[in-house]
Specification:
327 residues, alpha/beta, Leucine-rich repeat, LRR (right-handed beta-alpha superhelix), ten-stranded mixed sheet, three-stranded antiparallel sheet, 10 helices, disordered C terminus, leucine-rich repeat, repeat, Leu-rich_rpt_typical-subtyp, Protein phosphatase 1, regulatory subunit 42
Length: 327
């Protein structure tokens, strides 16, 4: 195993070329980018001489613990994916950190990020979780990130609910593919609180097979430009929004008519004809010859279109039939 130290940096061929006539302390002080990815590193030593470091690449190593980075107050990008990290810790001093890459580790809880007020991107996809477990989110951490986080990558973490993420109302990109999300109503509730969302990937979740899945999300997320890798046409979005508004208006109008009793009973028209009206007499005569029905009401047969006919030949409009349901 290899420990990342000042000596290791000094002996690195790439840094030897860049040093030229500078002394090692001077060079380390000026250093802004440090790349030791895929070097079999398992531990980070004291690197405090690299006080101006802004980007640190340590992915594809064997690191088990995040440590000795408190000196890096200017660090903006930290790449730690594909290591052996189990806990997010010792990052509170990285006040300038804007992008954090932790995918491919063994983290079970998203925590310890409360002090990172500048964090814009969090990539924590494909954690090596114990069988049957899922990645969970500490509410305090998520609330603290709500003011800054705009990109969240939680792909492939066995996640089956995201209601704890609703407070992240500055999100513009969500990558949550290959999880276990299946509650359409929960997604609609959460996404309705993310007004800036413009790119989202939910491929590989059970919810993708629900009826009208794509249409419903497009109408909820008004700024969404890409869903599951497919671009959203603005004309199609407006059509879906108008269709949904029309459907809701019709439902509301029908409900109001029922509540105000504007829908009449289906036989009420005959009661106002008077006993001498030919239609009423014909109906009365026919009813007198009929055998009593087993349940006391005429059966209903459906014909094509909005008109229905009962067993004695009386035609009902659709709204009359609805009222008959309440008898």
């Amino acid at each position: 195993m290899v420990r990342l130290t000042m000596d290791l940096i000094a002996k690195s061929s790439s840094h030897l070329k860049n040093r030229k006539n500078c002394s090692l302390p001077q060079y380390l002080k000026k250093l802004t980018h440090l790349n030791f990815s895929n070097k079999n590193i398992d531990d980070i030593d004291d690197l405090s001489m690299c006080r101006n470091l802004t980007v640190l690449y340590l992915y594809d190593n064997q690191i088990t613990q995040i440590c000795n980075l408190s000196f890096a107050a200017n660090l903006t990008h930290l790449y730690l994916q594909n290591n052996q990290i189990t806990h997010i810790e010792n990052l509170s001093f990285l006040q300038s950190l804007s992008k954090l890459f932790l995918g491919g580790n063994s983290i079970t809880v998203v925590e310890g990020l409360e002090q990172l007020k500048e964090l814009r991107e969090l990539h924590i996809e494909s954690q090596r979780l114990p069988p049957g477990e899922k990645l969970i989110f500490d509410p305090c951490t998520i609330l603290a990130l709500s003011g800054s986080l705009s990109v969240l990558n939680i792909n492939n973490n066995n996640i089956d609910e995201i209601h704890d993420l609703a407070v992240l109302n500055n999100l513009t990109h969500l990558y949550a593919a290959d999880n276990q999300l299946q509650d359409m109503q929960e997604l609609e509730l959460v996404f309705s609180q993310w007004p800036q969302l413009n790119r989202m990937d939910l491929r590989g979740n059970p919810v993708c097979h629900k009826p009208k899945y794509r249409d419903r999300l497009i109408t909820i997320c008004r700024k969404l430009e890409d869903l599951d890798g497919k671009e959203i046409n603005e004309l199609s979005r407006q059509f879906l929004i108008n269709w949904k508004a029309s459907k809701e208006a019709k439902r509301k109008a029908l409900s109001e008519r029922i509540m105000t009793r504007e829908i009449t009973y289906p036989l009420s028209a005959d009661f106002h004809l008077g006993p001498q009206h030919p239609s009423a007499q014909n109906r009365a005569g026919f009813l007198g010859k009929r055998k009593p029905l087993e349940f006391g009401r005429p059966s209903i047969k459906m014909r094509s279109g909005p008109v229905w006919t009962d067993c004695i030949g009386v035609r009902y409009e659709h709204q009359h039939l609805l009222a008959l349901c309440f008898l």
